[in-house]
Design goal:
The protein has 378 residues and is of the alpha+beta class. The protein is built from ten helices and seven strands. The chain has helices at 2-23, 43-63, 66-69, 73-102, 107-135, 147-212, 214-232, 241-259, 283-295, 328-350, and strands at 238-240, 263-269, 277-279, 302-310, 314-322, 355-361, 364-372. The strands form two sheets. Strands 2-4-5-7-6 form a five-stranded mixed beta sheet, covered by helices on one side. A two-stranded antiparallel ribbon has the order 1-3. Helix 1 (2-23) packs parallel to helix 7, helix 6 (147-212) packs antiparallel against helix 7 (214-232) and helix 9 runs antiparallel to helix 10. The protein is elongated, with a radius of gyration of 31 Å. The protein starts with a helix and ends in a 6-residue tail after the last strand.
Length: 378
């Protein structure tokens, strides 16, 4: 009977190892959007364009003699700002509409096409401006003598400004992509450590039960199979909050088999909308951290309090575990190492929209996480 259980366990572990090889991402695998040009539809890009255009309008106003346009400097600034902003925003709109097509080209060609589109837009806006001045009676001819000079000056200034602007925006976009790529690589490396560690920890639990209580070991195998099936099928980074809670509760049920009466968990789960989601394997590492540093070192065990609630479209998670007296002085640092990995995951996915705080309060160690309820950046 015991031999058959060992054989079934061995075959189950082999099948699990094969699934892990398929489910675990390759080292250094990074998901990239492949976009070379930045998103010219974003508010931050538009704001930068407006500021740079206005600075250029001020410089032109100070350089151009007053009598050419108007004897009043503020009137000159107003007219020049309208024209420069029109040109700048028109070029931004063109790149916004054509970005997905231009980015299909090789990087050098994409940059050249974007540059030519900006110059063509400048030429078109200048032509339309002259025609509007003629249509409103401000000038007598649709082709005044100064039209060619204005076109040459506008295109020349635009050529220099666009070269510098594109260089600045593309360099900034590349830096952001590179930083994100490095963080994603670290996240993938961390996840590839979490999953095998979770497997080996569970195997140790089963190994401790096989000799002392074979029926419990067999029941634990079934629970772990369900748990791994749930965990390995979550290929996406985000999962519904209910799924993450189910996974954490199954993990705790397995830990209770190993620790028996030494582990007590009090859950306080509020009501959440169906849209609530979070990164996969968020709760389980928090609970494992609490068990490893707060329950295992104490012979009599202890109680972990887990509270989840929703407030103003944000998910609040609070995990509290006791602090062993003999390790109270170094608990904060040892727990902080694994919690910093979780904080990195939050920053990679949410940016500054998520928070993770931890520290000692009396004889307890408390971890508090705050996440956007939809699982997306605001």
């Amino acid at each position: 009977m015991e031999l058959s259980r060992k054989v079934s366990l061995s075959s189950w572990l082999k099948n699990l190892s094969k699934r892990l090889e398929v489910a675990t991402p390759a080292d250094g695998a990074v998901v990239e959007d492949g976009q070379f040009l930045p998103d010219f539809c974003s508010g931050w890009i538009v704001f930068n364009v407006i500021v740079i255009a206005e600075m250029l309008a001020i410089v032109i106003t100070l350089v151009v003699p007053r009598y050419i346009i108007s004897p009043f400097i503020l009137q000159n600034l107003l007219l020049i700002s309208i024209f420069v902003q029109w040109v700048a925003l028109s070029g931004t709109a063109v790149l916004c509409l054509t970005r997905k097509y231009v980015n299909r080209l090789p990087n050098t060609q994409a940059l050249a096409v974007a540059y030519l589109l900006l110059l063509a837009t400048t030429w078109l806006v200048t032509e339309v401006t002259i025609l509007l001045l003629w249509a409103t009676g401000e000038i007598e001819s649709p082709r005044p003598q100064w039209a060619t000079h204005l076109m040459i000056v506008t295109i020349t200034i635009g050529a220099f400004v666009y070269a510098l602007l594109l260089r600045f925006l593309v360099a900034k976009h590349e830096l952001k992509r590179r930083t994100l790529s490095e963080e994603r690589t670290r996240i993938q490396a961390m996840l590839s450590r979490i999953r095998p560690h979770f497997v080996f920890s569970s195997m140790n639990i089963i190994a401790s039960l096989i000799r002392s209580d074979p029926p419990k070991a067999e029941s634990a195998l079934e629970d772990i199979a369900d748990l791994f099936r749930m965990m390995l099928n979550q290929n996406e980074m985000l999962v519904p909050l209910k799924n993450e809670i189910d996974l954490a509760q199954k993990y705790l049920a397995i830990e209770k088999l190993r620790l028996d009466n030494r582990l007590t968990v009090n859950w306080d789960i509020g009501t959440f909308p169906r849209k609530a989601a979070m990164p996969v394997l968020t709760l389980q590492p928090l609970l494992e951290n609490a068990i490893r540093h707060g329950i295992e070192p104490v012979p009599t065990g202890g109680t972990i309090n887990v509270r989840l609630w929703e407030h103003e479209n944000r998910i609040y998670i609070k995990v509290m575990n006791p602090i062993p007296r003999t390790r109270a002085k170094k608990t904060d640092g040892s727990q902080g190492m694994s919690l910093e990995d979780i904080r990195l995951r939050f920053r990679n996915h949410y940016g500054d929209a998520a928070q993770l705080e931890y520290g000692m309060e009396g004889d307890h160690f408390i971890v508090t996480a705050v996440l956007p309820i939809r699982g997306d950046k605001p």
